[in-house]
Amino acid sequence: MNEHKQREEIVLLGKSMYDRGLTHGGTGNISVRLNDGWLLTPTGSSLGRLDPARLSKLDWQGRHIGGDLPSKEAMLHLAMYQERPVSGAVVHLHSTHSVAVSVLDQLDPEDVLPAITAYYAMRVGKLPLVPYYAPGDPALAEAVRRFSGRHHAMLLAHHGPVVAGSDLHAAVDATEELEATAQLFLLLFQHKFKTLTPEQVADLQRRFAKR
Ligand SMILES: O=C(CO)COP(=O)(O)O
Ligand SMILES: [Zn+2]
């Protein structure tokens, strides 16, 4: 996909997620890998009102080479790409149910959500909790880097999800699956409920290609 089309996709999917309340106000950021660098949403922008011509462009040293001033999470996105050469896009949102799960006590920080559905197991899999750091803190980007070799999806404590995908559609799909499962989990967690078995999860991983 050429750069023009990638810019249009960021605007389209950003608005789609914003309009469905998956992030709000000026929160969240989206990036996409290009042949000659990468695109990122500008700092302070609403995902519902992006301008394709004003998206930030950066090089692989993280230098700003075009468009508006980049998101304060630029180093976090860059760390994901550096550790995940297969990933073509990264989505970060402040989705309400995912944030709620990120502050629950007594969760397993190595795998925050259970495999309630097949699509969660297929699109997200194991979800680690990244300890809290302030938004934009270089320590947050380094904490994300430590997980991103082994995980394409993670949950930032008191903050929200970060998800990489082979392309923007894959990253958005997985982020939506995470948020839907967080909502299901909150509906269920004071009840006794069953999850998929480890054998069922392993079977799904065999059947469906990795992100
Ligand atoms: O989600 C955000 C910070 O974590 C939003 O920050 P930016 O507006 O700088 O992208
Ligand atoms: Zn954020």
UniProtKB/TrEMBL annotation:
<dbReference type="GO" id="GO:0019323">
    <property type="term" value="P:pentose catabolic process"/>
</dbReference>
<keyword id="KW-0862">Zinc</keyword>
<keyword id="KW-0479">Metal-binding</keyword>
<comment type="function">
    <text>Catalyzes the decarboxylation of 3-oxo-tetronate 4-phosphate to dihydroxyacetone phosphate (DHAP) and CO(2).</text>
</comment>
<dbReference type="InterPro" id="IPR001303">
    <property type="entry name" value="Aldolase_II/adducin_N"/>
</dbReference>
<dbReference type="GO" id="GO:0016832">
    <property type="term" value="F:aldehyde-lyase activity"/>
</dbReference>
<protein>
    <recommendedName>
        <fullName>3-oxo-tetronate 4-phosphate decarboxylase</fullName>
        <ecNumber>4.1.1.104</ecNumber>
    </recommendedName>
</protein>
<keyword id="KW-0456">Lyase</keyword>
<dbReference type="InterPro" id="IPR050197">
    <property type="entry name" value="Aldolase_class_II_sugar_metab"/>
</dbReference>
<keyword id="KW-0119">Carbohydrate metabolism</keyword>
<dbReference type="GO" id="GO:0005829">
    <property type="term" value="C:cytosol"/>
</dbReference>
<dbReference type="InterPro" id="IPR050013">
    <property type="entry name" value="OtnC"/>
</dbReference>
<feature type="domain" description="Class II aldolase/adducin N-terminal">
    <location>
        <begin position="8"/>
        <end position="186"/>
    </location>
</feature>
<dbReference type="InterPro" id="IPR036409">
    <property type="entry name" value="Aldolase_II/adducin_N_sf"/>
</dbReference>
<dbReference type="GO" id="GO:0046872">
    <property type="term" value="F:metal ion binding"/>
</dbReference>
<comment type="similarity">
    <text>Belongs to the aldolase class II family. AraD/FucA subfamily.</text>
</comment>
<dbReference type="Pfam" id="PF00596">
    <property type="entry name" value="Aldolase_II"/>
</dbReference>
